[in-house]
Write a structure and sequence with these properties.
Layout (H helix, E strand, L loop, with lengths): L2 H18 L7 E6 L7 H17 L4 E5 L10 H6 L5 E4 L23 H16 L8 E8 L4 E4 L14 E4 L2 H9 L3 E4 L5 H6 L5 E4 L3 H4 L8 E4 L8 E7 H6 L2 H9 L2 H25 L3 E4 L2 H10 L1 H13 L5 H15 L1
Parallel strand pairs: 1-2, 1-3, 6-7, 6-8, 9-11
Antiparallel strand pairs: 3-10, 4-10, 5-8, 5-9
Helix pairs in contact: 2-10, 4-10, 4-13
Length: 342
């Protein structure tokens, strides 16, 4: 082949290779499966600003697209992320009982009723004490947090004594809440928050455990005339902002570091603040609508603490079976971390 033709052929090959090669600065788009309704505090005040911040801190290399509807069901969000059906999700471990047993230490009764304190503590506690048990295999936890503790909202009667709980059909979001309802003589119904309106309006449920903020957000105000606040909280619900593990590892170290800096306990702290403010607004909305908002009397709270002790004992046994050598030490450490954060 003459030199001129060889030179032309070589140039053509280089041009073809360049056309076929990916552009180094191409934007990576992460698909987010969203189930939070419009106007909900977590979505508006924390998740959407965080999504915008991700693009900013990665200098536009990453973008998060919120999908038009949730992928799969709300309880299946962990699997959606693990299996790569979406890259990014918020999942609730308690929606799939007997799967994330060790994590349930964060959900035990009377840990805390202050999300501004508990939410960031939950993330730090997870990373220091629980992550090594690898319960989230296949999903990288960007932030582990609690929202407001579930309080009790019902359409039947005021709750002033433990006897008032008996026979009420109440939605439960997770195992410790389910056990608490059973111990109190109520009838737990395990359903995700997304189904609460339909079940209350149709009379299938008498009431629901719910963070107060979520009552107006899920349009339940007119369905629950009785709100009962339990000081110290019967339970907390853990949520996780998670990303598919393989997708996470495919990102550059610089982008992973940038996202980590705005996630973790920073994200959790913002969640706690949003819910604390949302709870105040929700109770004000309920009162203005003529609903009853009462605090369970101190003698009933003391009695409830005694009645619910089996929840802690049962968790200790479950944790031992999952390989936790000294579960009581985890409980004690969590309580110490919460006390130190006040």
């Amino acid at each position: 082949m003459p030199p001129s033709i060889r030179k032309f052929a070589g140039a053509l090959a280089l041009a073809s290779a360049a056309i076929g090669a990916p552009v180094a600065s191409a934007q990576t788009v992460l698909k987010y499966s969203n189930w939070l309704p419009p106007g909900q505090a977590m979505r508006v005040e924390v998740v959407e600003p965080w999504i915008a911040e991700v693009e900013k801190v990665t200098q536009g290399r990453l973008k998060i697209d919120t999908l038009p509807k949730v992928v799969g069901s709300v309880p299946a969000q962990f699997d959606v992320a693990r299996d790569g059906q979406a890259d990014l999700v918020i999942f609730i471990p308690g929606y799939t009982p007997n799967r994330f047993d060790i994590l349930e230490v964060l959900q035990l009764p009377f840990m805390s009723d202050d999300p501004e304190i508990f939410a960031p503590v939950a993330d730090r506690f997870y990373r220091k004490q629980l992550a090594s048990y690898n319960e989230f295999r296949g999903v990288h936890a960007l932030s582990v947090y609690v929202v407001s503790p579930g309080q009790i909202f019902n359409r039947v009667r005021s709750l002033r004594t433990l006897a008032d709980f008996k026979g009420l059909k109440v939605r439960s979001p997770q195992p410790s809440a389910t056990q608490a309802l059973s111990l109190l003589g109520a009838v737990p119904v395990n359903k995700p928050v997304s189904e609460t309106y339909e079940l209350l309006s149709s009379g299938v449920l008498d009431g629901t455990f719910m963070p107060p903020e979520s009552i107006p957000a899920f349009k339940l105000t007119d369905l629950v005339p009785h709100a009962t606040i339990v000081p110290g909280a019967i339970y907390n619900t853990v949520l996780v902002l998670g990303i598919n593990e393989a997708k996470w590892k495919s990102l550059s170290q610089a982008d992973r570091d940038a996202i980590t800096r705005i996630s973790g306990d920073v994200f959790a702290r913002n969640i706690g603040k949003a819910y604390a403010n949302g709870d105040k607004a929700a109770f004000e909305t309920l009162r203005k609508a003529g609903k009853s908002v009462e605090t369970l009397p101190a003698p009933s709270v003391a009695e409830m603490k005694s009645v619910l002790l089996p929840i802690e004992r049962d968790w200790i046994e479950k944790a031992k079976k999952k390989g936790v050598a000294e579960p009581q030490k985890l409980i004690d450490q969590l309580r110490a971390d919460l006390a130190a954060a006040k």
